[in-house]
Amino acid sequence: MKFAYKLTLAILSLLCAALSFGGTWTIQQNFSQMQRDMIQQSSQQQLRDRYTLETKFGEAEDSSTKTMDSLAELYAEEEQVVMADSASPFSLFGENGTVLYSNMPHTIPYSDQQAAISAGETKARYIAVGEQYYLLLATPLRGLDRPIWLVNAYDVSKQFQERDRQIRQHLILQGTALVLTGAAALCISRILTRSLKKLESASDALSEGKTGVRVEISSGDELERLGKTFNQMADAIETQFQMLQEETNRQKRFVAAFTHELKTPMTAILGYSNMLRSGEQPAERRRKAADYIYRESTRLETLCQELLLLLGLEKGECQLKPTSIAAIYGDIRRSLPENFLRIELLCEEKISVQGNRALLVTWIRNLILNAAAAEPKDRMVTVTCTRQSDGIRLCVEDHGKGIPEEELSKITEPFYRVEKSRTRENGGNGLGLSICSMIAQIHHSSFQIESSLGIGTKVWITLKEAKS
After folding, report:
1. Mean per-residue pLDDT for 124-141?
2. How far apart are CA 399 and CA 375, in angstroms?
3. Distance between CA 110 and CA 35 in Å, rounded?
């Protein structure tokens, strides 16, 4: 069931309960007041009948049943003449319930009259006879030589009919009020829940993958705040979705590049191996095949080592401790082959940083190898270590070919190459800068690159200085 219908039913239920309770209480109060007024009026009329009968019976020469019956009948006839239709019937009862006189309608049972006597003169008894209602009042006649009870019957059908009329009128008014209120409540509920419908539609669209959907709610209440919260959630989902898409695309590119990196050397190795096993070959060809197999196998070994290093870096399991820049520079000189580019290692003074010595050596070495592949005009790579306001800056700079600006955002992706043929010829596999970027993250630094075509490239990270 829609919320608008639930809200309408809730309003109607409360209104129905309020009208029912209020109407019932009002009608009951009115009816109770009519009963009290009727009992008071009837009691006064009965008191007059009792005084009159007591007087007549007291003045009679004898108190025989026949005499009392005659006197009571005479009084009833007088009352009928004087009061016409408003005269109330009555009965006189002696000892043991003997009927001395009665002009009661035959529809009023004897048992009900006896019940009125048993209730006493302080109690009023109502009985229903068909569609008629009667009020029975009983009182004893006083000052006589034997006990006699007077029972009067008063027609109160009009009071009950008036009560029934009020009930019918209330039901009609209540039904009309419920219909009108229900229609108004439904319209208002639909207006109030219009914002919820917008949220529902937006949620359905979001669940279908339409991350750009948003809602505009200007109600100035909790629904508007809910709409803003929904939009914030949608923004977060869209951002996460885009990040997942980018990560998925990166993984696809990684798998494709990795497959390609494996396929090229494996194809060569299989080809030369098959040539060697197919039959006797000249010595020069065998040597050439063996050299190619060895070179490509070495390349695969290097690729596996760098992949293992990259996976280890992604886990972030690395201990950082005070490390001397001088010691790092020494490891760099020993790791590079002789007759390589001219490497200039500069440091302002004796500086120690909070880092991992082996990873920092790898970071600088990879960047130097990349600089060599860029063919610097002066065949020189400069490594500098300077103290900055935010820490120690370690920078590698060359004056090579440079990197196009549109490529800068991609070069840290695994297996990505700016010039694929040149880097492959130089033994590169596209993992060096990815490893450098991960090493920077492990050292809680961003990987900064500045490059211009034909001018050169500068790469740096900022490290935390170790306390001496």
Report:
1. 91
2. 8
3. 23
State the pTM of this model: 0.48
Q: Which amino acid is at 295?
A: R
Residue 377 has pLDDT above 70, yes or no: yes
Residues 401-410: contacts with CB under 8 Å, at least 24 apart = 401/374, 401/375, 401/453, 401/454, 402/374, 402/451, 402/452, 402/453, 402/454, 402/455, 402/456, 402/457, 403/449, 403/451, 403/453, 403/457, 404/453, 405/451, 408/449, 408/451
pLDDT bucket at 167, cuts 50 / 70 / 90: very high
CATH architecture designation of domain 318-463: 2-Layer Sandwich (3.30)
Neighbours of 346 (CB within 10 A): 11
In the predicted model, what is the mean pLDDT of residues 150-177?
A: 91
Average pLDDT, the chain: 84
Give the other-Cβ count within 10 Å of 180's Cβ.
Answer: 10
Determine the Cα–Cα distance for residues 230 and 308; give it in Å rounded to an integer: 42
Longest dimension (CA), the chain: 172
Angle, vertex CA 254, rays to CA 210 and CA 452, nearest 5: 95
What's the average model confidence in pLDDT over 35-47? 91
Q: Kindly give the pairing relationship between strand 380-388 and strand 342-347.
A: parallel
Task: Quickly count: other Cβ atoms within 10 Å of residue 30's Cβ.
Answer: 14
What is the H or E stretch that residue 386 is in? strand 380-388
Residue 374: strand, helix, or coil:
coil
3-class SS letters over 262-331: HHHHHHHHHHHHHHHHHCCCCHHHHHHHHHHHHHHHHHHHHHHHHHHHHHHHHHCCCCCEEEEHHHHHHH
Contact (Cβ atoms closer than 8 angstroms) between residue 233 and residue 254: no
Distance CA 239, CA 235 (A): 6
For domain 3-177, the CATH architecture is 2-Layer Sandwich (3.30)
Cα distance between residue 448 and residue 174, in whole Å: 78
Using pLDDT thresholds of 50, 70 and 90, give the confidence band for residue 423.
very low
Stretch 139-159: mean pLDDT, rounded?
A: 90
Question: Looking at residue 225, what is its pLDDT?
Answer: 84
Q: Which residues pair with 463 in a beta bridge?
A: 392
* Mean pLDDT computed over 317-336: 85
Residues, the chain: 468
Where do the structural domains in the chain lie, given as residue ranges? Answer: 3-177, 318-463
Among the ranges given (103-117, 131-145, 152-166, 271-285), the one the predictor scored with the smallest mean pLDDT: 271-285
Per-residue burial over 437-464, b = 16 or more CB atoms within 10 Å of its CB, e = otherwise: bbbbebbebebebebeeeebbbbbbbbe
